[in-house]
Amino acid sequence: MKPHNKATKAVILFSGGLDSTTILALAKEQGFSCYCLSFQYGQKQTVELDKASQAAKKAHVAKHLILNLDLDKIGGSALTDTIEVPKDRKLETMENEIPVTYVPARNTIFLSHAIAWAEVLGASDIFIGVNAVDYSGYPDCRPEFLEAFTVMANLGTKAGVEGKNKFTIHAPLLRLSKSEIISKGMRLGVDYAKTHSCYDPVGEKACGRCDACLLRLKGFSEAGLTDPAAYI
Fold first, then answer.
1. Cα–Cα distance for residue pair 163/209, rounded to 1 Å
2. Nearest Cα residue to 68 out of 19, 9, 21, 109
3. Residue 232's CB: how many other CB atoms inside 10 A?
4. 79 has pLDDT over 50
5. What pTM did the predictor assign?
6. pLDDT tens digits, one per residue of 179-195
7. 3.40.50.300, 3.40.50.620, 3.20.14.10, 3.90.1150.10: which CATH number matches 9-222?
8. In Å, how far are 56, 91, 105, 127, 146 from 136, measured between CA atoms?
């Protein structure tokens, strides 16, 4: 992708995790003026939001917006409900079933808010840190989903219909392994010690046993690096 003028705005879906912090660095490298969007969506832990706020401030983004959603009232996920977060799952299991940490329609909901904000900002670029290689089997992390959502976004918005801002959803990590993502982030100077991935932390320390932790640790190991995050 060609570098963009500094005035070119992009909305970055930003959780404060390893992947979203990497895409923020990528978007900045490409010359975008970054508008980060995070969510307090009823998740049982808020460490990620603290990390997101700190990282956005350090990166001097144009704006960091945190929206409140009550997905915990819907429930149905180990991240928002009383369901226990699964631990010590095998990689093969992760690849072949959708886990209870899946939050119903989360990326659809998040992207819808991102498109709404982008339309107000006059931005046509949305960045999301989904990954279809080393991930937990979520259906809304697949390229087919992103392609379909892009079509919908351009059909269902004033900007898309009038042709003023045809939306593009960028998923630069989609086909990378976790180790490749980490290597790319290290090249960009990402401080992974300041990121949070764990589904079930104790305080600010990661559990080291949930899917997110296991995939993260695997990625660092394959990259020949030690994960700088704090684990219990």
1. 47
2. 109
3. 12
4. yes
5. 0.93
6. 999 999 999 999 999 99
7. 3.40.50.620
8. 26, 9, 15, 20, 17
